[in-house]
Please model this.
Amino acid sequence: MSEERLIYLPLGGAGEIGMNCYVYGYGKPGEERLIVVDLGVAFPDMDGTPGVDLILPDITWLKANKNRIEALVITHAHEDHVGAVGHTFEDLGVPIYARAFTANIARHKLAEYGVEGQAVKTCSPWPETTKIGPFTVGFLPISHSIPESSGLVIDSPAGRIVHTGDFKLDTQPLVGEAWDPDLWADVSKAGVKALVCDSTNVFTPTAGRSEVIVGPAVEKLVAEAPRLVVATTFASNVARVRTLAEAGARAGRSIVLLGRAMRRMVEAAVETGVLKDFPPVVPVEDAASIPRENLMLIVTGSQGERRAASAQLSRGKFNGIELKEGDLFLFSSKTIPGNEKGVIHIMNQLSEKGVDVVDDSMGDYHVSGHANRPDLLTMQDVVQPQIVVPMHGEHRHLREHVKISKDRNRQGILAVNGMMIDLTGNAPKVAEYIETGRTYLDGSVQIGALDGIVRDRIRMALNGHVVVTLIMDEEDEPLGEPWVDLMGLAETGRSNVPLVDVLEADLGQFLGRSGAKTLTDDDKLEEGLRRVVRQTCNTEIGKKPEVTVVVSRLS
Amino acid sequence: MSEERLIYLPLGGAGEIGMNCYVYGYGKPGEERLIVVDLGVAFPDMDGTPGVDLILPDITWLKANKNRIEALVITHAHEDHVGAVGHTFEDLGVPIYARAFTANIARHKLAEYGVEGQAVKTCSPWPETTKIGPFTVGFLPISHSIPESSGLVIDSPAGRIVHTGDFKLDTQPLVGEAWDPDLWADVSKAGVKALVCDSTNVFTPTAGRSEVIVGPAVEKLVAEAPRLVVATTFASNVARVRTLAEAGARAGRSIVLLGRAMRRMVEAAVETGVLKDFPPVVPVEDAASIPRENLMLIVTGSQGERRAASAQLSRGKFNGIELKEGDLFLFSSKTIPGNEKGVIHIMNQLSEKGVDVVDDSMGDYHVSGHANRPDLLTMQDVVQPQIVVPMHGEHRHLREHVKISKDRNRQGILAVNGMMIDLTGNAPKVAEYIETGRTYLDGSVQIGALDGIVRDRIRMALNGHVVVTLIMDEEDEPLGEPWVDLMGLAETGRSNVPLVDVLEADLGQFLGRSGAKTLTDDDKLEEGLRRVVRQTCNTEIGKKPEVTVVVSRLS
Model:
């Protein structure tokens, strides 16, 4: 056990889509020097995380091993890869490495926490490399749905790892570098120990499509639109934003970017030189003076987010602009599972305004940023790794990815969050299980997913909440009647009198029946009152609410 | 205005998918005799209706006009058409007409409310008709994803209406009657005033596919499966259930039906004679003694419902059966928008058990029960109506359906819930707007969607709940400190001391500052305490919770 070893430990993103965080280490067991690849967020929903603002990986293990961490390396600037950098910097405080565009975004995230920009070091792409502890790390350009996405070439004394990051095999991505199989083959020819690989689209059986196919369809649509055109897409898909803007400009329309994220991304892309020929943009204040048929808005909110520009426009006037009969609204995007209802709601609100909605249901106006099944096999064929380690996927994706690798006679290992894999020998093996989980950013504080706080909120949402207040006098006898407040419960039930009255009567009866043993014991008293409330509510309205009992003793 | 008129009034299902309820009337304005077509439910979700059990149409208008209602006519036995029959019978109490299979299901729903079965009258299909008030109603067989779905031929002195119900143009539906264009043309040849038509799939540009195509693909899959096979589909899709069972039987497997709805539907279909040749079924208790490779389960829960058989099997042992490595789980279904996360969760749990999951992503194992765009146009061509009235769709579906009708040089009218349409003249016109909405079945009581009860539950889920208790003595001075209870909120915030302590201190300070004017006025006092709680929480944890203040006065 004292031999040096090469380890891989996913802390987020393996067994889920979102909040990516992967750790590599080299050294003696327990003393490995570490690099962290990506530190992203996931997004909350009403089902499981009501009221939560963001979901972050649980970095308890990283904090405990902080002195062993050499650096945080970011592959690209999507929120699920860079989103937690600001929220965790105070706890980790390690140097951050990224390419220029990603570094620009990361610096803005740190600035929100008052951290200086020099914490982020800008790296040039391969063949340049950076020595980080026992590793040498190079950024290998690859196409994705955001500029400057990079695979990582991670060299250790135990061999070379190729970490793909998120990718697709696009030879014409329009913005950012194209997929260059020769470059990747060249990097791999000396032998690759492990290919740690994106699994998102493993179930899509056809080869991926290039970003270049979207342009002509969008151009035709925009050219034929008689009135105002609004298009939404992922703000970070700078190539798509440019495609949309170009279609507008060619149709003689002035372009307005609406939504903070949309402007921020274009700005970062221009600042870092990845975007050079974006059509001229007019400020939203000028939109009112431009005839509708000469105007095109490119807006945030393709996932139906309630506060983004798309939702605002669907509800009414936004930034002085109001959509009308005959306007066109294009969703140049796909709907991420879970967001369907929000997106459909917007479409129906637009329909009520007489706006014509076009989406990607026929596949003309969007392409995915991830490699499909045949592309994943192509990647394996190019890199020829000894082991395939699927990442960036739910359990079913990782499992399928292992399966297709084995069908190709390659070793594959299914490693989910918390499984530390020893990659040193010829066959990968599980070295250890680390406790992992999720941390919620809730308002301005971080809480644990298992703290019970969000569970209580879900219970109140499902069951309602009853508050019982009781004052006990100096003789440990009830002073007056117990008092009941309802929140989120029907006011009247089976008895056809106010539920509050029925509850107060039943609680009064319970107190009348109770002896000193109960009345002097807070726990017993609360438990008894709680039981009465739940029974009575169940009889009256068929629900068992959450109950808070407050007993005040004057003694 | 004293002329007799023919009206159409959707109360549910027009402007949404779910809880269908359409009213037809004939007579002098305000005195029309009415028939209600379908009375269905919609299903709640955590986003908008947490804790709610079912969503029903608001029948306030029907209750107010109860003495004018001649009958309730049910087109088919899907929950969104028949589901509210039991919950509303006490309020409406009108006779119910349906064909045998639908009547069987409706009687079971009424039985749950202690209503005798004779409330439901079984009708034979066209050419038989029933005189109901000023109307003559005939049930016109058509194919759908449930047996005995029927269009309605509704004759009134002002002309004939064809109400399609839910339908597809399937000439080989396997169970139930096939689409018979000659029959529909024959019914229509004397002239149809209005075609009131299903709009669900108006955005699907290709012609619908027949139920018959599913069989061979399923058969191949099941025959090749090495171990246990589990298949889930909509229980009411009796044809599909039979297809699945036949595939199992042909592969030499014993068939087990799992889930109450699955057994109930097959039972109803057998009882009413629509299903004659279902393979033999073994009780679940016998499953343990059958080798896995000779067993097939057909189970409920294709939409990821937490308590249905699919979810139970994905979690662990259910009815003595446990899924294992190498088993096959088939989703012979589509995922209804909003249910994606639940379904995906099950798939991942199955993946963790090593079960191979197959779904319909490639289109081999499911076909829709609704007419696609070309089918809707075919229906118009067969019926040749004077007016097309789209129903059964969200606003965007209805609008598109009107559009394609107009493109075909037909009159179309977009009528959403609450719009009473006068169909008497040559052109349809809006006669009146009726207030409509939704009623929630919440536990055992019905509450209004706008009562604020569910809104309070959502607010507690998003913001948490703080309870402040304060006792005021006989001199209207606080007796001791205010007491704070938190539910669903972080215990510690910015100050790094318990939030409860910070709140109690701030509330104490507020009380110390407050004069008699505040202390003697319950409203002022509560408002002041509430404001302090929200401000302090916002400073400490960045959230503004819901607050309940209980002030007890000893005076």
